[in-house]
Amino acid sequence: MSSHTHNSSTANVVGVHYRVGRKIGEGSFGVIFEGTNLLNSQTVAIKFEPRKAEAPQLRDECRSYRILAGCPGIPQIYHFGQEGLHNILVIDLLGPSLEDLFDMCGRKFSVKTVCMAARQMITRVQTIHEKNLIYRDIKPDNFLIGRPGTKNANVIHVVDFGMAKQYRDPKTKQHIPYRERKSLSGTARYMSINTHLGREQSRRDDLEALGHVFMYFLRGSLPWQGLKAATNKQKYEKIGEKKQTTPIKELCEGFPEEFGIYLNYVRKLGFEETPDYDFLRELFAKVLKNNGDIEDQVYDWNLLNGEL
């Protein structure tokens, strides 16, 4: 970071009218700061990416946000531009991620919380797919609730579109061709078996990765976590092998059968097939009903002492 982004003087203003505040996160791409729109005092998030980054993503990410603009659960984007040696993106500031909340809740979520979250997450992924994009980096860290105390506090949002890709032509709806020997992209823990096998990703892979996230939330961990290998490539292979050899029945043992039905369904989808999102959402409505729960948007994290 250049020094002027650190002092809290008036020099610390980017994109004409955004003051940069405290650092709230970082990733492979760069750093995220909290900021303020000086025109209306709105709090925002400002993402900085070095312009000389090996694989700049911010411009592409900005493009995805623009395609998805106005969709529920997608943060609004306010500014994209260059600031000194960095690209910057100014978007809505949101609350903690599902991974943060999972930690706060003792690294287990109740069936009720997982079902209510699953229904929202399937809808977000459907929205992305309907806009001709696949997400390709499904993980709990990329799903954020709204800021506590706001009207969107329990709306689950999707952030970080650095890996998103168009899977069909927006006009003709012609699907991308099936390919193999692709290099792995995404997070090994959650990625689909087909992704491990180097197959081109499509809609089915986003949904399979979601299924792995649901089981992670219920179980507290996945059977392929913590595998050791000499190289990353070998580790990815080991994880892939363990996924292929862990029966769905075993993975979902002790939990409502709908979780297994979900995984079986998404793993059987064809490369170009349009998933039945309603059927998948309905599975989790059924679990709630069978457990005598109502979808009241009261999640485990809302029951923590003193709220968030």
From TrEMBL:
ATP binds at K47. Transmembrane segments: none annotated. Its EC number is 2.7.11.1. SUPFAM superfamilies: Protein kinase-like (PK-like). It holds the Pfam family Pkinase. The keyword Protein biosynthesis does not apply. Keywords: ATP-binding, Kinase, Nucleotide-binding, Serine/threonine-protein kinase, Transferase. It comes from the Eukaryota. This is non-specific serine/threonine protein kinase. It comes from Gloeophyllum trabeum (strain ATCC 11539 / FP-39264 / Madison 617).
